[in-house]
Amino acid sequence: MNRYFNNPEIKKSSMGLIIIMISFLALNLLLIKLHNDKLKEDYIKVFGSITAKVVEVDPELESEIVPLLTKDVTQEQELKGREILRQYGLSNTLDTEVFPYINGNFKSIQLTILYSGIILTFILFIFNYIQYGYFYKTVRAFTSAAKRIVEGDYNLKLSEEREGDLSKLTKSFNSMGEVIRGNIYALNKEKSFLVDLLSDISHQLKTPLSSMILYNDILLNKDLTKEQERTFLKNSENQLNRMKWLILNLLKLAKIDANAIELEIENQSLNETIEETIETLQDRAIQSKVKLEFVQNEQIFLKHDRLWIQEALINLVKNGIEHSGEGGRVYINIIDNPIYTKIIISNTGEAICEEDLPHIFKRFYKGKKSKNSESIGIGLALAKSVVEKHGGYIEVSSKPSEDTSFTISFLKY
To answer: Which of 56, 195, 247, 298 could serve as a FRET partner for 176 with CA atoms 20 to 30 Å apart?
Structure first.
């Protein structure tokens, strides 16, 4: 029962009923007292008239009759008196109207009960109207709010009471509105993301497709030597590989941005993750005449998904190889302390322009001085998304007199 009285509405309703009933009882007690006073007055009138008649007949009986009016009579006296009155036709079987004083008091009591009942009914009706009016007003507020939500207004918020079931309902309704608003926002964001993704794919595939159509048209309609045919086929193969790499990376980026992947987070050696990354890119570094170096002083363990972190590191290291030039160097270092773990990937070579730094992680962004025509500008964006999916963040620093450094930071909680 206590949980019901936690509701302020029930508290107010119960207090109102208690006040009404106490007031009604007090009024009835007052009316009963008034009727009792009237009955005493009538009692005095009746016995006063009888006493006056008896004293007129025999004055000596005055001293005997008056004391009898304020004392209890004996059973013998009561029976004797009833017998005398019965001889004159007076008994309790007679109609009340025969007794004028009793009849008047009886009618007065009836009217009092009737009027007090009507007043109590009216008060309870008003109280009931106010009470249910409040509840139906609240229900109408919920109905109106629900209608507005259906019409697309998700920013409304009902006022909340401090406690009670109605307050809980209001909070749940507001929470539902916030959830719906969040879901609609997420759906619109996903819709916008899908439109942008399709636009990006269309834009990035347009050039290699056009090249392949041109190569195919030349192969079909021109008389070419074996060497020329091999050249065009080789170019087509390069464009196909480029399209394959682009599509695969766009799908990876789309999965991450759409939260469509589940990371297999394990507490494992970060050193081994970096070593496997270097092994994957070692041949590429040798071809580019770039030295890969991993500086490690101790084994560092980090909770991460090895394959996805390698995906991010591969893109960052590959970017370093491409911009180091022949004889350049890419080196990786780990900094670990009780607060954070950092992976620093630095490379020699030309620095990134200062105006390019704020945009370097944007999808399909290419620096103004980029000389790599094959670069699409998706690798750094993918690396950033992977790192943020792990709860970390990535930043870049590059100055003409210093190496370019990408720093991945993971805070320890």
So the answer is: 195
pLDDT, greater one: 319 or 43:
319
Answer whether 165-257 and 266-411 agree in fold. Answer: no
CATH T-level fold of 266-411: Heat Shock Protein 90 (3.30.565)
- What residue spans define the domains of the chain? 8-150, 165-257, 266-411
Q: Please, what is the Cα angle at 185 between 183 and 186, to 5 degrees? A: 60
> Residue 41: which pLDDT band, with cuts at 50, 70 and 90?
confident
Q: For the whole model, what pTM was predicted? A: 0.53
Q: How far is CA 198 from each of CA 64, 87, 160, 195, 254, rounded to the nearest angstrom?
A: 122, 118, 44, 5, 10
Which residues, 6 or more positions from 367, have their beta carbon under 8 angstroms from its beta carbon?
352, 353, 356, 360
HEC profile of the chain: CCCCCCCHHHHHHHHHHHHHHHHHHHHHHHHHHHHHHHHHHHHHHHHHHHHHHHHHHCHHHHHHHHHHCCCCCCHHHHHHHHHHHHHCCCCCCCCHHHCHHHHHHHHHHHHHHHHHHHHHHHHHHHHHHHHHHHHHHHHHHHHHHHHHHHCCCCCCCCCCCCCCHHHHHHHHHHHHHHHHHHHHHHHHHHHHHHHHHHHHHHHHHHHHHHHHHHHHHHHHHCCCCHHHHHHHHHHHHHHHHHHHHHHHHHHHHHHHHCCCCCCCCEEEEHHHHHHHHHHHHHHHHHHCCCEEEEECCCCCEEEECHHHHHHHHHHHHHHHHHHHCCCCEEEEEEEECCCEEEEEEEECCCCCCCCCHHHCCCCCCCCCCCCCCCCCCCHHHHHHHHHHHCCCEEEEECCCCCCEEEEEEEECC
Q: What is the pLDDT of residues 353-406, one digit of tens each?
A: 888 888 888 876 666 555 554 555 678 888 898 899 899 999 999 888 788 999
Tens of pLDDT along 195-223?
776 776 676 677 778 888 888 888 888 88
CATH of region 165-257: 1.10.287
The pLDDT value given to residue 212: 83
Query: How many Cβ atoms are within 10 Å of 281's Cβ, its own excluded?
Result: 19
Whole-number average pLDDT of the chain:
78
pLDDT in the model for residue 21 = 81
